[in-house]
């Protein structure tokens, strides 16, 4: 009945509904121009994430979306408990903080929009004081057009696959990765797909790939640190099934070390030996192993020196020695030459060459491969295909890689597979398919 209608609530809610519809229509126009699903303009929180995509601010958009969700929760809670003064006051504190945080991240996103739409920076004041009206004008006026659209993978098919596992060998690391997926901000992403190779023992291997090609994901899958839908065999041992036993046969040296600067070199190596060598190993055997490793990496003369007093090259050799103490069959290093000059880096890679020659498999990531490429046997080239999935573009001898890609340096190979928006030639799918065809001939 009309007499029971609370017009006070209608008058209060009415402007909010009108504002919501107006902003939705504004987002609708901007989403249409930027190539985003227009329906997202009417979904709270989802539209905040997508307006950030339009602004090329995906990272900020994630935070902006989470803050928006928390803001809505706080507002709804305040509406439910509006009769309780204590609860209302309690909710007002985080609400204020969320409002300020949303304002700051909103500024970042609007600055991104201004840049994408190639407008003057002073437009930010229009967004600050007249956000709804400004978004409405930008969304509906044909004068405002983005310089680029949001990349959509809908309907895009990736490069064709090999789809066949390689048979495990007694003297090799056999990698058969069907796929590696992850949930990334409510979306399932395929990080790696269809990677098959067999790396013989005694080989020093370069892992090459542009940003986002999946190099770290590949290494984590191979070592079992982050398991994929895969079968990884070191000889005839399954890394995933026998992980507790196999993890000591795998050494991984990260780019940054975590050594205590106040310990001596010998103390640092002893700590690693006590943690990683078998408990049944005698004191004499452990000391002999430590002496061998110190000598191998040229650290015997500085074994009583503090870690903080070591040169960059010595410190890097010590971080490698810590992982080599277990005498691993598979040795992986992430940018071991980072921060080292050419001469020191060269000596370090020569040492890795010696380790490989002992029958170990050594896989290395480096951003300056051409200065030491003569020391490597093989190269693994990972590339992002059209669906932005890490794929295998090549694995094999270094000399044949130049012929395969038609290039004369590793840097040129990298440029050929990088996306065009990254300054590359955008030929990743071409080489992924070319390599898959080559492998099918060998497997067949």
Structure in words:
With 444 residues, the protein is an alpha/beta fold. It has two domains: 2-140, no CATH class; 172-443, P-loop containing nucleotide triphosphate hydrolases (Rossmann fold). The protein has 15 helices and ten strands. It has helices spanning 7-34, 46-54, 58-80, 85-116, 123-129, 131-140, 215-223, 243-246, 265-276, 283-296, 312-324, 342-357, 398-405, 410-417, 428-443, and strands at residues 172-184, 187-200, 204-209, 229-234, 237-238, 250-253, 330-334, 361-365, 378-384, 390-397. Strands 6-7-8-3-9-10 form a six-stranded mixed beta sheet, with helices on both faces. Strands 2-1-4-5 form a four-stranded antiparallel beta sheet, with helices on one face. Helix 1 crosses helix 6 and helix 2 (46-54) packs antiparallel against helix 3 (58-80). The longest helix has 32 residues, at 85-116.
